[in-house]
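pasting for the record
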Amino acid sequence: MQTNGQIRSLVFAEIKHHDTALITNEQYKSGAEYRPGCWPPSVELAGGVTQLQQTVLLAREQLGEALEKLDDAGAETGEKAFIVRPRSYLIIGHLRKLRGLSGVHRAKYRSFELYRRNLYEPDVITFDELLARAEWHVQAVEADVVGQ
C-alpha cells in the first residue's frame, strides 16, 4: 500500500485472522498468567510483529529509498513511493478476547495494551477497532455531505 499525499510513502500491513488470540492462555497447561496479572502476547501476535518488522527491513534493504511506479506496459510513470521508515500495521484479533463473562478482564486488557503501546513498530490494530474507525469515517463523510 502507499499513502496518497503530495509525496507518497510505502505502507505495510499484515492481516491475520479476526479470531486470532491476542494474549497467551492456551500455551500454559494451567491456562494461567505468566506471573500474577501478567499475560504475555500470543505466539501469533508476537510472530506477526516480528514478521512485519522483517518484511519492512528487507523491503528497505532491497528496494532502496524509493519505489518507481510503472504503467501496465512496464514503463516508468515518474511517480515514486518513498521508503523512509515506512509505517506498518498489524491487523489481528478482536478485543472481545480480553473480556470475561460479565466485563473486561482488566489484567488481560492491561497486558495487551502495555505490549502494543510500547512497540516501536508496527501499530497493532484489532479488527473491531478497524471497523469502528471505518464506520466513524463513513459517518463523518455522510454528515459533511448532508451539511453541504
